[in-house]
Structures are given as structure tokens and as C-alpha cells.
Amino acid sequence: MSEILIVEDDARLRDILRDYLEENRYQVSEAASGQEAILQMNKIRPDAIISDVSMPEMNGFEFCRRVRASRSYQFIPFIFLSARGQVDDRLQGYQLGADDYLVKPFELWEIGAKLKMLLERTSRLQREMLDVLQLVNHSNSDISLHSMEAFGGDEESENPDELPLTPAEVQVFGQVALGLTNKEIGERLFISHRTVQTHVSHILQKLNLSTRSQLIRLAAQRGELN
């Protein structure tokens, strides 16, 4: 069950969102400000965040900036819900790394649809990475049985789809597999090309691959990352 963190200072709206999400089989955590949300994230690991912009203590923009500055949460699905609907406000939200920006008032079904799409996208990238890793193993690569067990890829693993990559690395992997350059990836994900290169290096190391082109070639052989 996916866990969603709601960050909203309006208690009535938090209740409405919580009831709707729980009815749709999500687990829900709540916070009344960005500062409180950061404290929550030290205890839990949400799968997605829905946040207001105008809040006390720490507003949503600053909260989003701090989330995106964290390696562990750099690419967690993030949706803004705000009464601030000016173009400049929405642009700032996207520039900070939000995946979507909905203006109040909004329809609950629209939040549900966008949240479902973002979570499925993340899950799809995880599956694609597992396919590539399995292909490397079946092609007599350097990945040992011990390494596969460490990756959670053995048959007895409690969660065989789990890979040792951070959410940020999951997103970068998907872009690398499409053959994009570091500059192109950085522009898409609102990060520097140096940060992209750091993620690529970590991905290759964790998957026991030697070159970037090998990763792209293996993904292309599967024909699933088009």
C-alpha cells in the first residue's frame, strides 16, 4: 500500500484529502507545514507528497526545495495544491521540481488520477531496471550470485523487484536508457549535468556495469524502454 504525505495547514482540507485517499486504498500521513513535514519524513518514507504552498513556519516552495535537495527524495512524486494560480507561481513550482501543480478549488478525482499516474511511472521505471539487471545476469555478465542476492534479486527474496537505487537514481536511469545526454536529462529533471553524472556513476556501480553505453544497449535489446 502506497503512503501519501499530505502537507496542508487547513485541517478541514486535510480531512477531505485523507478520507478520499484512504477510500482509494492509500495509507496517509499528515503535516500542517513544511517544517512539520520534514520531521515526519525523518520517521516515515512516503511514496508521494501532496503539498499546499501558503503555510506557516515553512511554505510549500521552501519545503519542495528541501525535498529535492535530498538525495533520497529528489524525485519522489510531488504535487502542489494551491490557491496561488498565477503563471509565475506555477512556473516556480515546476522549476523547484514539482511534478504537477493544481489550483484550488480542484476535483478530488483529478488528484487521484494524477497521483496514480505518477506512482505507476515510478513503479514502471523500477521494473525496467530489474529487466535490465536480469538481462545482464542471463548474458553471463560480471554480476555474481552474491551481488544478485544483495540486490534482492534471488528467488527467496521477500521483495524480488527491489533494487539498490535511490528514487533519484530511478528517474535518472529511465532517462539514460532513452539515450539522452547528461545535459538533456538535467533540463528535464531540473538538476545540473554534474549531478546527473554522479547518479549515472552510482547506477553503473550498483548494477555492476562498466559503461553507460552498455546500459543503453541492454535496455534497447529488451525493446521496452522506447
UniProtKB/TrEMBL annotation:
Gene3D superfamilies: 3.40.50.2300, Winged helix-like DNA-binding domain superfamily/Winged helix DNA-binding domain. Keywords: DNA-binding, Phosphoprotein, Transcription, Transcription regulation. Residues 3-119 form the Response regulatory domain. The modification 4-aspartylphosphate is found at residue 52. InterPro entries: CheY-like_superfamily, Sig_transdc_resp-reg_C-effctor, Sig_transdc_resp-reg_receiver, Tscrpt_reg_LuxR_C, WalR-like, WH-like_DNA-bd_sf. Transmembrane segments: none annotated. Residues 158-223 form the HTH luxR-type domain. It holds the Pfam family GerE. This is Response regulator transcription factor.
